[in-house]
Structure formats: C-alpha cells, structure tokens
Amino acid sequence: MGNGWLKAKEVGGQSKHALNRWISYTMPVIIAGLVGFATWVFVALVCVNHLLIRQERKGTAITLLVIYFLLFLLVSSAYLRVVWAVSISPGFVTKQSTDSENEKFLGSVESCSDAEIGLGGVQAEGWRRGEEAVHPPEPMTIAGNPPENVAESLPDAPQSGSAKGAPRPTLSPAHPNPSLQSSAGHGPSPENALGSRPYSTYGPPRPQTSAGYQNLDEWFQRDAFVCENDGLPRWCVHCQLWKPDRSHHCSELQRCLWRMDHFCPWVGGVIAEPSYKFFYQMVFYGALYCLFLIISIAVIFRQQISDGGNQDARWAACLALACVFGLFSGGMASSTTQLVYRNVSTIENLNYKTKVYQLALHDPNAAQTPPPGQQISAVMPTRVWLPRDPGPGQRQRCFAIVSTQPGDNPWKLASTLENFKEVLGYSFWDWWLPIKRSPFEAKKSGKGWYRWNEELLARLKQQAGITQPSGRSS
C-alpha cells in the first residue's frame, strides 16, 4: 500500500510538471494576443477614432501615441529577450561525463542539504544529528601539514530508495605529529565557534565509482566554494553532476541550472542566470506599460461618460486587463527589486533569515609547520586535503570547512549599488536596454563562480585561523 501511494505521488508530480510545461508553451502566444488587443483598442479606438477624429485633439493623441509606443517597444523587446533566453540558452549546468553508463550513480533520493535550504542548514543538520546519534563522529583534528595517506577507498553507493547515503571514510585522520592534534582529542569534539561540525561517517548520496569523482578540478582550484560535510560540492543524483554554487535542479526541465530563480509559464520556461536581467526589465517596464494604459483609458473613459457618450465595452475590457496585469507585473517588479537588493534568487530567499551556508575555504598556510609550542585551538574548523586521490599533475590543497551564521549571505556585496550592477550591468544603457546580459554570467576564476561578500569571507577566514602566506600581500 505504501509503495502504491509513493508511485501515485510520483506519477502525480510528473503530471503536474508536464502540465506546467505545456502551459508554458502556450502562454507566450496568449500574451502576444492580449498585447495585440490592447494595442488595437488604445491606438485605433482611443487615440485615432476618439481623440484624433471625433474630438480633433491632435496634440493629446500624438503625445499618448509616442509614450505608448516607447513603452511598448521596451516591454516587448524585454519580453522577447526573456523568451529567447529561456528557449535558446536557459542556463543548463554542463553534465560531467563518466567512463560508461554502468558507472553512473543510481540513487533515487536527493541530498537533504540541497541549496534550497542552505548547505549546512537546518535540514542538513537534521540528518547529521540523526546519524551522529547512531555513529558518533571521530575526534576532530587540526593539522598544519597534509596527512600522508589522504587517499581513501571510494564510498559505496547507497541502496536505491534509501533515505541516507552510504558510509564513507573520514577525510581528516589524526596527523602523525601529536603536537598538531586538537586538544579535544579524548572524545567527540563539540560544535566549534563557526558552527562547523566534526565529520559524520554518513552523508548525502555520492557517485558509486571513481568515474563520478572526475571533473572536480574547477572546484579545488578556487579559494572558496559551497560544500558538504566531507568538503566535496553538492551532487545531483538526477543530472549526475557536481552542482556549482547557487545552481539548482528544475523539476520541470529535469536539469540543473545556473542560479535558477523560478519556473515562469508566462515566458515559456525557467528564469535563471541568462534570463534574470531581462525578466527584471520585463516586469518593470510591464508595470509602467499597464499603469500608463490604466491612467490614460480611465481618464478618457470618464470624460466620455461625463459628456454623455456611449460606453464602449472594448475600452472597459482593455482597462480591466491592464489592471489585472498591472497588479501582477507591479508585484513581481517589487519582489524582484528586493531580491536584487539582497543579491539572492527566489529559491535562496525562501528562508533568507535562517539559512546557513557551509563553505570550503582554501588555507594557503596549511603546508607550513606552526612554530614550536604553538597551541591550536579546539574550536578551529576541520581541515581536508583535496582531491582525496590526486592524479598525475594534481596537487592537493587544504580547505577549512566552515559555516556561516543564520541569515548571512555569502554573495551580498558591499553596497546596494554593487548588487544592482551585478544584475543589470555597469553602464547606464545596460540598466535600461535589454541588450547585454548580466555581469554575473562571467564566471570568476580563482575566488569563486560569483563575487563573494568579502567582509563575510574575511571574517570566516580570520575565525578559521586562515592567514596569507608570508611574503604575499593580503
């Protein structure tokens, strides 16, 4: 009975996603028809027939027509740019290849610590506490040099349908030098000052074979990235790929997208990184367009009624549509402005005030031996050396696993203006014309995929004891 219910729920979910996709295919056509109707009513019936021919108010008619076509051009071009982006370049994360189809991970559950709730967040902590109650964590160790035997056997794949991942080895074994071990090595270490927890031997699903652990160099060469408890990035069991920062899996498209915002049937697809700027411009200009129609038609309609003229139902229909879509586009413009101000997507904003992110921070001084007699605090976060099994030409780098405080946003920039520039562009014309794409599409090398909140990152590094190597400027 339980299996039947789960299958029925899965079929229902698939039907819902399929319905959303079909609606999204027809909505652009419906929108085009509604805008065409509004154009015909306002231009032909209101401005030409009523103002220009009947009342001979040429100046008023020409002024209204110029403003209308200016707003029409802006909103229609922004809408077409959104439709083009979601259709041609939706922002899919490239799938990593494996050696063969047999080596793909066949898990049927998603990581409980997906970015919708924040890595290291409330839901992630739930499965950590549950696992640690059964499997106490190993004592936390802090090391100044990489351990000699970092490469461990790869984890076994979890059984299909299991709610938890398979056991995997701890990545920070005790260092051969006892002086570098944590002073809290006589039992499980308490949660440290950064909110980072000692390793659990269980965790979210992972690939089954070594083929799934390829293509991680891009993460390990960066100064910081969002990670799981073992220091590795998130893994999407549906797309079979490691998920970059701020990427999410779309149920309608069954793909992971860069900085996915939401599925929008009104534009025929998913608003994500390539289309986000144009969507913001579309709802902003759409609100102005509807407001202009509402004010213009309402004023002229009222004058016509006062003069004892006939009430045209087509005017009333156009006014009603303008009110409905004006409320919708105005609300979307207001909420999107708030998201841009915070530098978050709609998904990231779901639990903005409580979200906790877990980050892997590169420690450039990890290979240097601490001075004799230096004591390493027990509240220092765990260090891991990645990649775990370095191949030819690869060099291991040390990362500290840290967590932000609830509500901290690793990508909120220093000023409101900078947050808006990151979305809309760095010139005046980029802000108002839907031509160039957002600056945050340019993936940063070295530090991260997106610009970091430097103040927050500096604080986390300081608390984690990460300093610049000697002879190198900060």
TrEMBL record:
Q: Where is this region: Disordered?
A: 134-207
Which InterPro entries did the record assign? Palmitoyltrfase_DHHC, PFA4/ZDH16/20/ERF2-like
A single GO molecular-function term is: protein-cysteine S-palmitoyltransferase activity
Q: Which PANTHER family match?
A: PALMITOYLTRANSFERASE ZDHHC6 (PTHR22883:SF23), ZINC FINGER DHHC DOMAIN CONTAINING PROTEIN (PTHR22883)
Keywords of this entry: Acyltransferase, Lipoprotein, Membrane, Palmitate, Transferase, Transmembrane, Transmembrane helix
Q: Which residues form the Palmitoyltransferase DHHC domain?
A: 233-352
The protein here is known as Palmitoyltransferase
Q: Which reaction equations make up its catalytic activity?
A: L-cysteinyl-[protein] + hexadecanoyl-CoA = S-hexadecanoyl-L-cysteinyl-[protein] + CoA
Q: What is the lineage of its organism?
A: Eukaryota, Fungi, Dikarya, Ascomycota, Pezizomycotina
Q: Domain note for this entry?
A: The DHHC domain is required for palmitoyltransferase activity.
Residues crossing the lipid bilayer are 22-48, 60-80, 278-301, 313-333
EC number(s)?
2.3.1.225
GO CC entries: endoplasmic reticulum; Golgi apparatus; membrane
Its placement in the membrane is given as: Multi-pass membrane protein
Q: Which family does it belong to?
A: Belongs to the DHHC palmitoyltransferase family. PFA5 subfamily.
A Pfam family recorded for this sequence:
DHHC
Q: Does the keyword Acyltransferase apply?
A: yes
